[in-house]
């Protein structure tokens, strides 16, 4: 066992085929699972090495942009090429980012550039703490003159934001748009139900269906498109409280940490899932 | 003589396997262990097609696999296991398949309750059914109610079976119950809007902690309307084996992956709890 552990660590990134055959052998041994956990580092990187290879065809990678709001003007003017990549059927895509990693606005802007270049028409950005609303949201607000209401720093965490760039839309949401959004819809349904019944003695039991709840979510501003694909950037595959009502049949893919994101991986996942 | 010695050998091997399993679970328990695991039992029909079995036979094999996995979970000390047995959307399948599933559910529930050497009696299991039981066939609904009544006083681990269930339907029913309770409170003089905590008290899963791990077999990446509300900080996993092929090795691997992600998820959970307080 000790020998296997010593052998596994140094060959980690040098000989992939040797890794694969070693893993196949070790998998037959139940005690392997305890040792293997020690050599896992970047989960998504290993997934690629072990079988989910990015496409080998040449992929035109969008240029990296400088970190300033100027890039957003280029981003706004970029013409999506969904047909070139075969992604016509992928209408909306959500990105869930860990709030700590969401502070890296350079990477978020780069990601938005890439997604716009492959022609995604509707992008939903989500993080638990509302960091994206305070950073990217403010930049997009100044670009499109869309005001996030209300405007104070504290309230920016709770306001949902939808920005339009020609044919593309970007929505930025946080935890307050999830469970709290449903609670607001429940209060709305309750107040409508009490309004409808005129006399106390004739008040019927509330009987709400899923479509009533969906309409209430729309009325309270907590509804939105259900994304076809959800990319999770963070240490673990976890949707971090993304609004439940919009997650029913969404494909959820863990992309690893934001700092190690790459265009080929995003394109590969979009092409596999479409 | 040959038959007796074969019996003896298999008895000894069985004991050695149980001892090895106990050692393995002890090793695993040095790390953080999940309290609640949820499973989406995906792949029974594909397994039947792969092995060229009759229609419906895949679900039978899937049930045997479920009993084995439950046994391992409870030996590991997992207190709650939730399984997605039948969705409201599954009523759109062929009528003969739906009837077959209802009949299988009734047969297996009766088997678990009546036979002596089952996991219900071995672990003192409590069985709970979540979902719209009124949509099930009469026999399946009565069997489910019988199982809940028979195991209501058991103090062991809990098996939650989601039948005729979708998460959005659960949320709608919770809203309905919250509104009824709010009406009674207002009649007594209390005022206020409906909060997240009020909704959560009226979920089917109100007495269960949120799942630590949610496993969907067959490599599928969707949650298919299962525990969408409760899985905010749940480690989502989608191993490739079909459900009947899901074995102890896959379960141990799932727990190891959870143990790796646990510090991050626990930190997010603490931060969220701090924010809510």
TrEMBL record, chain A:
InterPro entries named among the record's database cross-references: Nus1/NgBR, UPP_synth-like_sf
Family in the record: Belongs to the UPP synthase family.
The protein's required cofactors: Mg(2+)
UniProt-listed PANTHER family: DEHYDRODOLICHYL DIPHOSPHATE SYNTHASE COMPLEX SUBUNIT NUS1 (PTHR21528:SF0)
GO terms for cellular component: dehydrodolichyl diphosphate synthase complex; endoplasmic reticulum membrane
MF GO annotations: ditrans,polycis-polyprenyl diphosphate synthase [(2E,6E)-farnesyl diphosphate specific] activity
Annotated catalysed reactions: n isopentenyl diphosphate + (2E,6E)-farnesyl diphosphate = a di-trans,poly-cis-polyprenyl diphosphate + n diphosphate
Annotated transmembrane regions: none
Assigned EC number: 2.5.1.87
Protein keywords: Endoplasmic reticulum, Magnesium, Membrane, Transferase, Transmembrane, Transmembrane helix
Taxon lineage: Eukaryota, Viridiplantae, Streptophyta, Embryophyta, Tracheophyta
Subcellular location: Endoplasmic reticulum membrane
Biochemical pathway: Protein modification; protein glycosylation
Protein name, entry field: ditrans,polycis-polyprenyl diphosphate synthase [(2E,6E)-farnesyldiphosphate specific]
From TrEMBL, chain B:
Highest taxon in the source lineage: Eukaryota
UniProt GO MF annotations: ditrans,polycis-polyprenyl diphosphate synthase [(2E,6E)-farnesyl diphosphate specific] activity
Protein name: Alkyl transferase
EC number: 2.5.1.-
One example of a Gene Ontology biological process annotation: polyprenol biosynthetic process
GO cellular component, one term: endoplasmic reticulum
NCBIfam families listed in its UniProt record: uppS
Family membership: Belongs to the UPP synthase family.
SUPFAM superfamilies named in the record: Undecaprenyl diphosphate synthase
Pfam families assigned: Prenyltransf
Keywords carried by this UniProt record: Transferase
Leader sequence residues: none
